[in-house]
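Lab meeting, item 3. Inverse folding demo.
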């Protein structure tokens, strides 16, 4: 027969010649109950990646920002254009005469931001049209809820590495059941958890490209299993009775054959199977539930050897085991490969590969494909695999949801695919008849050529060829499509046969300062110091074993987000200038030096199993040098520079950050606590959470307003409390130190008397949100804020408040967890009611008026700041029972070209210190420390080097990074020598 289609400037003429060669009795008859179908997935075929309200998925982000990870640098922006070709796609399925079509639903097409408060009607309409047309043509729709295309908004919060994903996934599934469950009677919750967890959160091969080998994988598995189970129970309790459907999970099952009959090789095959399939299947289908004992034992043993205090594989509690067990109405499996394996020697570092201890022996070779050792038809192994599942898991109903083989470039004469189909169908029939396996469905991957993940369009699995060079994405049947159609006609086929297809293509296509020792005496109780933070001053970003931080990634990958496109790679080079910098501090006469420790310099990957001795040595040298010069070290544990490995797992939006941060703190206490007596857990949680996870202004630059911000606040507060309790429990008696955190206490004044409520709201959101859980009489988040956010969340369609609720136990756990009130103060703002502006939380409903600009309107800004400084100090005293206050940052910016005669900065410090002295002497505020920000010019986050806070100037174009005193340095030297504040 002849097919002809006009495609742009290309004319394709296809001639198909079919021939069956009958040799003896080799007819295979398909069991009547065995359903045959074809499959696809949303990102791979739909295209329309930003059309009709669809949100961004992790694959959108990866293919646009990391093209090097895709074999041909392509993306799925258009793919097969299935979003616009429902009719054509359904007609292709119909012509194959198969009984069902398994497709997936794009989470971001239904819920653009990942949450069910905003349902995209256009997305619902698209899938309704697809489902209805399938049913009209007599084709059963089978829907996969999740096929790898997570909303980027959720990945920004940690994705499958965040335990909260189970609730996000449940909310998404509920929307699908409500909208499509009246017609869809078979649901697949998750496709191939192994690929999601191993390739996404371990090796970083798939989107979002995270490398957290041997850690992220297991966290992902743990959360994914609970998410699946939650959706299963939701369907059972709410929808099953009325919708009468089935629901299960789909796992990839590769058969692992021992390379030899040796005991070691056999054990290797079993290990690989348990780690790859059993880790998902066992908790659901086994009689006892839980992870396989072999997996638990190996990971626990290796974790201990690697220095982890507990197994990298999270433990399933008895309740969780009961919750997960039995949560699948069928055993869904995808099968592509049979691999010969043998034991392997461990490589350096923590990895899933080392846990398994198995390597592949590439023996099953053929010439059909360039990936022949993997995509290879081994029919007897398929039968063996199915029999093994029956034996292991009490003979469940088995639905084979994917099996297939690729070709290079989409050839039409795909004889190797026809061979694959017949041999594997025969293997399935054999498993049914000879082994008694209850196989209910056989699904070919895939309906048409599509975007094959990291392979892009370089290899094709389709029964239909798609021309990706034409706007219409023309579909043409391959020989395998016609072959499948012939099988379905009589539900039988011959093992010995060939099809011939012929293709014909015809186409062408400055310092000055006057000393004055008369004035106001500083209170004797007030210690004076200066501060910095690690990323802003250290440099040596990739030296001596330091790991990557979120700021390293941010400045290198998004230079446009830094005002001068600069980085902190060298910064002030303090890593190489310890003695020089301590000498500066001593010369001025400061009592203490507040600095932070770079998490990734101490723990390169963020986890406590790998401690960097050179990082420990650097901070030991700094601490010892300070003490030798009579300067107290005041240490901040966290000042915005999270290890990238942890951010990849959700960072401060992942509940596991509590454990990760506590373990980091333990390493610090153990190594430095005998000399460090003043600890700050977290610097400015407001900035950390709002500007990082809501506004995207600082690394890692995420925008998740009203969601990520509140998760971050919640877990940062709990993490701080956990570290405080750790110190009290294990270190306080022997080390005799203090632990607290630092709150950004900048003040807000109403623009006029009518706007007092607006100013109060801003103060509550900026200060009380973080102070009340620790210092408040009753603890917890301010009641007004909780109610306000809850109300707004309800209006927006959320079923519960976007601000996580603190349980009574958590309130008690957090309350009182600070030995001082750390306060940073810089400015006073003016505010009025209105839509929240850039620097404010969206729920605040405050239009922030940050003028007067401190650089352009110096005198007005300094005067306003001084008024606000005293007011905020009185506020903390009154509201929180006059706690011991440590002012841990106070400073004034100038431009990079403002010179050495920084009289504006001196004026600011005079006014600020006068406010502090008045607060102590007149208002009886219990202030014990005052910290200058900062000792030297440094990298000022998204402002780069365009803004300078240092009392010592640095020329960042000079490799020596010479420190030159400004007038303000001389001011502080005189102030500390005389302890007298000059008056005008």
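The presenter then showed the designed sequence:
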């Amino acid at each position: 027969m002849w097919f002809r289609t006009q495609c742009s400037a290309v004319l394709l003429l296809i001639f198909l010649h079919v021939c069956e060669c009958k040799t003896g009795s080799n007819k295979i008859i398909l069991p009547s109950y065995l359903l045959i179908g074809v499959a696809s997935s949303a990102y791979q075929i739909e295209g329309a990646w930003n059309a009709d309200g669809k949100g961004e998925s992790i694959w959108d982000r990866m293919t646009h920002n990391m093209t090097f990870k895709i074999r041909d640098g392509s993306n799925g922006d258009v793919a097969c254009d299935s979003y616009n070709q429902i009719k054509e796609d359904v007609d292709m399925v119909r012509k194959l005469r198969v009984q069902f079509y398994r497709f997936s639903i794009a989470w971001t097409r239904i819920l653009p931001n990942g949450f069910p408060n905003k349902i995209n009607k256009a997305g619902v309409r698209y899938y309704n049209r697809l489902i209805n047309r399938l049913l009209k043509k007599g084709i059963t729709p089978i829907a996969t809820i999740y096929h790898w295309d997570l909303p980027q908004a959720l990945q920004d919060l940690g994705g499958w590495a965040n335990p909260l994903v189970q609730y996000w996934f449940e909310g998404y599934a509920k929307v699908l059941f409500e909208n499509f469950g009246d017609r869809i009677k078979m649901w697949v919750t998750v496709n191939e958890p192994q690929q999601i967890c191993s390739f996404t959160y371990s090796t970083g091969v798939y989107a979002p490209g995270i490398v957290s080998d041997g850690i992220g994988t297991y966290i992902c598995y743990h959360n994914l299993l609970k998410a699946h189970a939650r959706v299963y129970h939701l369907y059972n309790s709410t929808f099953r009775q009325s919708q009468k459907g089935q629901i299960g999970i789909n796992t990839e099952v590769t058969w692992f054959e021992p390379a030899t009959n040796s005991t070691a090789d056999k054990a290797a095959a079993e290990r690989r199977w348990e780690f790859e399939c059993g880790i998902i299947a066992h908790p659901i289908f086994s009689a006892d539930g839980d992870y396989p004992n072999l997996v638990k034992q190996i990971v626990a043993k290796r974790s201990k050897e690697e220095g982890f205090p507990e197994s990298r594989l999270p433990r399933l509690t008895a309740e969780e085991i009961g919750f997960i067990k039995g949560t699948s109405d069928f055993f869904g499996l995808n099968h592509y490969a049979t691999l010969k394996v043998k034991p392997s020697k461990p490589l350096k570092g923590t990895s899933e590969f080392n846990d398994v201890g198995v390597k592949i022996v590439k023996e099953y070779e053929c010439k059909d494909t360039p990936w022949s050792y993997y995509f290879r038809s081994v029919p007897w192994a398929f039968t063996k695999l199915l029999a093994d599942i029956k034996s292991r898991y009490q003979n469940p109903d088995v639905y084979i949801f994917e099996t297939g083989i690729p070709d290079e470039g989409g050839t039409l004469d795909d004889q190797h695919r026809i061979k694959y189909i017949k041999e594997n169908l025969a293997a399935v029939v054999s498993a049914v008849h000879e082994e008694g396996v209850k196989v209910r469905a056989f699904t070919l991957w895939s309906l048409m050529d599509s975007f094959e993940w990291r392979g892009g369009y370089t290899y094709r699995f389709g029964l239909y060829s798609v021309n990706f060079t034409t706007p219409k994405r023309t579909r043409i049947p391959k020989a395998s499509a016609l072959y499948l159609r012939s099988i379905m006609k009589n539900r039988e086929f011959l093992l010995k046969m060939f099809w011939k297809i012929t293709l014909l293509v015809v186409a062408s296509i400055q310092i000055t300062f006057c000393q004055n020792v008369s004035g106001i005496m500083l209170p004797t109780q007030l210690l004076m110091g200066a501060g910095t933070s690690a990323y802003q001053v250290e440099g040596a970003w990739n030296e001596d074993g330091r790991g990557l931080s979120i700021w390293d990634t941010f400045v290198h990958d998004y230079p446009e987000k830094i005002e001068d496109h600069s980085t902190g790679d060298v910064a002030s080079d303090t890593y190489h200038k310890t003695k020089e910098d301590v000498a500066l501090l001593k010369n001025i006469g400061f009592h203490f030096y507040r600095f932070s420790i770079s998490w990734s310099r101490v723990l390169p990957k963020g986890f406590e199993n790998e401690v960097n001795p050179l990082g420990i040595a650097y901070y030991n040298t700094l601490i010892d040098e300070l003490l030798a010069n009579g300067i107290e070290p005041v240490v901040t544990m966290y000042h915005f520079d999270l290890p990238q490995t942890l951010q990849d797992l959700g960072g401060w939006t992942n509940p596991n950050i509590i454990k990760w941060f506590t373990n980091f703190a333990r390493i610090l206490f153990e190594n430095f606590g005998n000399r460090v007596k003043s600890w700050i857990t977290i610097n400015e949680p407001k900035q950390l959470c709002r500007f990082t996870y809501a506004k995207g202004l600082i690394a890692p630059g995420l925008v998740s307003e009203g969601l990520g911000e509140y998760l971050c606040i919640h877990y940062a507060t709990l993490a701080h409390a956990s570290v405080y309790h750790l110190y009290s429990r294990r270190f306080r008696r022997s080390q005799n130190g203090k632990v607290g955190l630092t709150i950004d206490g900048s003040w807000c004044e109403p623009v006029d008397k009518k706007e007092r409520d607006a100013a109060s709201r801003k103060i509550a959101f900026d200060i009380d949100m973080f102070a009340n859980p620790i210092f408040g009489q009753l603890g917890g988040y301010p009641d007004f804020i909780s109610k306000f956010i809850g109300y707004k969340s309800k209006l927006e369609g959320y079923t519960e408040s976007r601000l996580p609720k603190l349980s009574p136990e958590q309130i008690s756990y957090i309350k009182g967890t600070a030995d001082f009130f750390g306060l940073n103060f810089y400015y006073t703002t003016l505010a009025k009611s209105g839509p929240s502006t850039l620097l404010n939380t969206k729920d605040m409903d405050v239009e922030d008026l940050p003028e007067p600009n401190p650089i352009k309107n110096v005198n007005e800004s300094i005067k306003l700041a001084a008024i606000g400084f005293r007011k905020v100090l009185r506020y903390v005293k009154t509201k929180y029972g006059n706690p011991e206050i440590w002012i841990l940052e106070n400073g004034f910016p100038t431009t990079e070209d403002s010179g050495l005669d920084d009289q504006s900065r001196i004026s600011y410090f005079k006014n600020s210190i006068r406010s502090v002295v008045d607060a102590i002497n007149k208002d009886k505020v219990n202030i014990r420390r005052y910290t200058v920000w900062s000792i030297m010019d440094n990298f000022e986050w998204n402002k780069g080097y365009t803004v300078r806070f240092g009392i010592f100037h640095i020329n960042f174009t000079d490799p020596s990074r010479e420190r030159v005193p400004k007038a303000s340095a001389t001011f502080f030297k005189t102030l500390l020598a005389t302890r007298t504040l000059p008056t005008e």
